[in-house]
């Protein structure tokens, strides 16, 4: 057994005498001890919430390292050598001071989960398509102004793609190739529209696009047959496409803070809808089909001013639906 002589007490977890994990979150480490290079059996390093400013290149030489957690440190660069780490599957670099990433990071062909959130990144690496096993990507709360078209090649993305809190004005049409993706978050950007190809994302269950500048939703959104939640609050939507009624699995529809002037009769097709938020809409008329939604549990109409209050609101209340006016 060698290495690890100057790591924090109790930070090493051993199995049969071999150090397999280094876990020292919040230990205020300013550097990673050189002795860690000798811990060849390490599989997991958790150094979240420390004060690291640099990463040693020797991390790439740890043959069994599959998890490297470095959230909330002081890193401004990532050593290009890290792209040669042979077993790395999970990498967390969130909440650091990164403005760019080395292209070699895309050589981590076995990577499954990549957290880049809360940095100052202005772009993602051009070779990101090489991360063909990636299942989860968090690039939220950076300074991204565009996404590489190659992001559509990440067809193994299944769990989530977080793009919240950037400066994106558009999403590339290649995004529609992510047909296995479950969750897409693109809130708090500058989006003025969604690509028509979004309807090809057949596995999508949750779509969060609130606080953008969207003026319309594409007709193809009706192709999202598995969608359960659509959060589109705080945009500039004045109407919804007729295809919205094809989202038969939709349970939660949040449209608050939009200048909605019209709801299509097609919303009557949302037979599994439980929550509908229309706060602040400019609807002069509420379509009677809302009263026929069989599973509606909450209808929020606060700060709307229809020309007249429809009588069927009382019927909704009597059957147990919460109606807020």
UniProtKB/TrEMBL annotation:
Keywords: Leucine-rich repeat, Repeat. Coiled coil: none annotated. Residues 128-232 form the Disease resistance R13L4/SHOC-2-like LRR domain. InterPro entries: Leu-rich_rpt, Leu-rich_rpt_typical-subtyp, LRR_dom_sf, LRR_domain-containing, LRR_R13L4/SHOC2-like. It holds the Pfam family LRR_14. SUPFAM superfamilies: L domain-like. The keyword Repeat applies. This is Leucine-rich repeat domain-containing protein.
